[in-house]
Design brief:
Shape: globular
CATH class: Mainly Beta
Distance between the termini: 34 Å
Number of domains: 1
Largest sheet: 9 strands, antiparallel
Radius of gyration: 24 Å
Strand content: 25-35%
Structural class: mainly beta
CATH topology: Neuraminidase
Strand order of the largest sheet: 18-19-21-22-23-28-27-26-25
């Protein structure tokens, strides 16, 4: 979560109408104000059909809700502007220290990194320093050498997206579009909590698609939206405004269908919003723990800061609660965080949402809600096909700042879930189900309610161990299982896990490896902070890296081998360094690795979507976002000929940076809207080729 800095938007000049307008005419004619979805190819664009916008008005005005108000410019992942706090003060070894020792033991890491930073260029990998036998051994593990033949585009700094010339894109499901399939959106002026509960949320992030080539259900996470972006003010001033902010968070389940002008939201009784006040249930070993009960006796409600995701072989969706601590605060000036609270980053002011001032659930100093904080930080399972079902918080997967949940089928059909805890110096986890998932489902049980939770320890010889987080581990003597699962971070500290550089998304590739993005850590190796190790090799790690491992015993074992797949600072093409701050990652069945970024990019350029060849480590840039946005989330149709990705906080919510998905007109244009991007190849081929 980045810093929030205030700026003031000037009032419009005399004689101008203080309501946002824009007018746009492309090469294909005037854009239909009743049709939001339009092809985005070489300059064609779209418009918004709310009463706030007038196609025939001038551009010199400003949205009424921004006039004279401070504008919170939010840089979520810019390393120099991020929240400098971290909560892991254990003496556990850091990944950088492990990698540093690993590199000193060997001149080259197998398949990858030379002591003098092996650089990967856009067309080929420089391999002169790598022994031939090591290259061949690594190549044999790669299942396929996929075709990646599109034109890699340059870095961009545009207020509009850019895509490779072989591709095109359309816009789907922008913030505030109604769930009724009408294609209409609620206007931002006078926007209410009730309207937000019946429209697409903000902060589009992880997602997955359940359907065929023509229609299906799209589950989309809504990580966060600043109060400024949502309602044009720095902080809420009433419970109703808090409810609006809360309703914007969570996730959406929407039916989408392919129409003549592109994909659109369709009318369906399965369309629904899940948000901070939606009824939930706890399941698994800690479900009845006193650590999850409040004196107030209030029911379990809500999910928030839903970042990355997962999907299961049995057809459900997993949404993951990340920076939940930032929504809590204290109304008491004498409140101080306990050791347990400090380990999860709770503070008196949180991230500045001020929910705690109007909603007692989020007041850390209110004894009646003392354990409300423990009700967040979970992986939440949602059945997209049953709108009446309650989302289930699966306690067996532990409570951390969950980035995502990568589910695969392991030995004997058991469900295996890989998870990252996205904070500086935090850990990578694995869960292995007790029963084969098919057997559990047939018995009416969730495969995610019984099993063993592990945390990763990376060793300098390129091996690793999965350390069990249970009462069977001597390091956790005296702990109960529910305490381990509710205070998973503290248990992992005691177990001796390796401190990582912000573990983000995890994916499983065709080569059998799990790939994890470690987005950045500018505190690595600084005074008083943990140093480098083999798996986290860069001090002041501004640009991040990607690690991959090969698990043992068909993914249910307790050991693994690992290597660096890419150091972002060393991946280059003719234009120089290609990317930084890798975040989203997804591997297709053919050996392509799709990498999305969130944060510091070379030359302060826009975030982007790249495609890498898992065998050659060759990267190509497919798509770039707009100024101030994060490129995140990935889902595909079964043929992989349609890909869905998200643009989160375009322009950081500031119309001076971007008005997307409207064409750029600047401060006089509309407030930008988070949305889903639909990517297709012009020749109808597989996305990534």
């Amino acid at each position: 979560m980045g810093d929030v800095t205030e700026r003031t938007v000037p009032a419009p000049e005399a004689g101008t109408d203080p309501v946002g307008h824009f007018s746009y005419q492309s090469a294909i004619g005037v854009v239909d104000p009743d049709e939001f979805i339009a092809v985005r190819d070489h300059g064609s664009s779209v418009t918004e059909n709310s009463p706030n916008f007038n196609l025939n008005a001038n551009h010199g005005s400003i949205p009424r809700h921004l006039v004279g108000l401070p504008f919170a410019h939010h840089h979520k992942e810019t390393p120099m502007e991020m929240d400098d706090t971290f909560s892991n003060h254990s003496d556990n070894r850091t990944f950088e220290d492990v990698l540093s020792a690993h590199m000193s033991r060997r001149s080259v890491i197998v398949g990858g990194l030379a002591t003098a930073a092996l650089t990967f260029f856009g067309g080929s990998a420089v391999r002169a320093a790598t022994p031939k036998g090591q290259i061949e051994a690594a190549t044999r593990r790669v299942a396929k050498n996929p075709k990646i033949a599109f034109t890699s585009i340059p870095l961009q700094s545009s207020p509009m997206p850019t895509i490779a010339p072989e591709y095109t894109y359309t816009v789907l499901a922008p913030w505030r579009e109604k769930l009724d399939g009408s294609g209409k959106s609620y206007p931002i002026a006078g926007f209410t909590a009730e309207q937000q509960e019946n429209s697409v949320g903000i902060g589009h992030d992880g997602m997955w698609y359940f359907g065929d080539e023509k229609s299906g259900l799209l589950c989309v996470n809504h990580e966060y939206g600043t109060t400024q972006h949502i309602m044009g003010k720095s902080v809420p001033q009433s419970l109703e405004e808090v409810r609006l902010s809360q309703a914007a968070h969570g996730m959406s389940v929407i039916k989408i269908e392919k129409a003549a002008k592109g994909w659109k939201i369709a009318k369906s009784d399965k369309n629904r919003r899940i948000h901070v006040n939606t009824p939930m249930v706890f399941t698994g070993p800690a479900a009845k723990s006193d650590l999850l009960k409040n004196a107030a006796g209030n029911p379990v409600q809500g999910t928030l800061n839903n970042c990355a995701n997962g999907y299961t072989p049995w057809g459900t969706y997993l949404t993951c609660e990340e920076n939940f601590n930032g929504y809590f605060g204290s109304t008491s000036s004498t409140w101080k965080a306990s050791a347990d609270q400090a380990r999860y980053g709770f503070s008196a002011n949180g991230f500045g949402y001020d929910w705690h001032k109007f909603d007692a659930r989020f007041d850390l100093s209110n004894a009646n809600y003392a354990n409300e904080m423990n009700r967040f930080g979970w992986v939440v399972e949602v059945d997209p096909n049953d709108p009446k079902s309650k989302p289930a918080k699966r306690t067996a997967l532990g409570r951390v700042k969950h980035e995502g949940a990568e589910v695969i089928e392991g030995k004997n059909g058991r469900a295996v879930v890989y998870m990252g805890d996205d904070e500086r110096f935090d850990y990578v986890y694995k869960f292995v189900s007790k029963l084969p998932w098919k057997k559990a489902v047939a018995a009416g049980k969730s495969p995610l309610d019984e099993g063993t939770l592990y945390v990763a320890k990376f060793n300098e010889d390129g091996t690793g161990n999965w350390l069990e987080l249970s009462t069977a581990n001597p390091a956790l003597a005296g702990w109960t299982l529910d305490k381990i699962l509710v205070n998973t971070r503290l248990a992992a500290d005691l177990a001796g896990a390796t401190k990582m550089d912000r573990p983000e998304w995890i994916t499983t590739a065709a080569d059998g490896y799990q790939y994890v993005t470690l987005t950045n850590n500018t505190q690595r190796g600084t005074t008083g902070r943990a140093g480098v190790d083999k798996a986290n090799p860069t001090a002041v790690n501004t640009y991040g890296h990607i690690v991959r491992w090969l698990d043992s015993d068909k993914n249910v074992g307790t050991t693994f081998t690992w290597e660096i797949f890419a150091l972002a600072k060393d991946v280059a093409d003719a234009g120089g360094q290609m990317f930084g701050s890798p975040d989203g990652i997804w591997a297709d069945k053919d050996g392509r690795i799709f990498v999305q970024t969130d944060g510091e990019q070379p030359g302060k350029h826009n975030d982007q979507l790249l495609v890498a060849n898992a065998a050659t480590r060759q990267f190509s840039r497919l798509f770039t976002g707009v100024k101030g946005c994060e490129v995140t989330g990935v889902a595909v149709t079964p043929s992989q000929k349609t890909m869905f990705v998200n643009l989160q906080h375009p322009g950081d919510g500031d119309p001076r940076l971007s008005n997307f998905p409207a064409p750029y007109t600047g401060v006089g244009g509309p407030v930008p809207r988070d949305c889903t991007i639909v990517i297709t190849r012009k020749n109808g081929g597989v996305v990534g080729t």
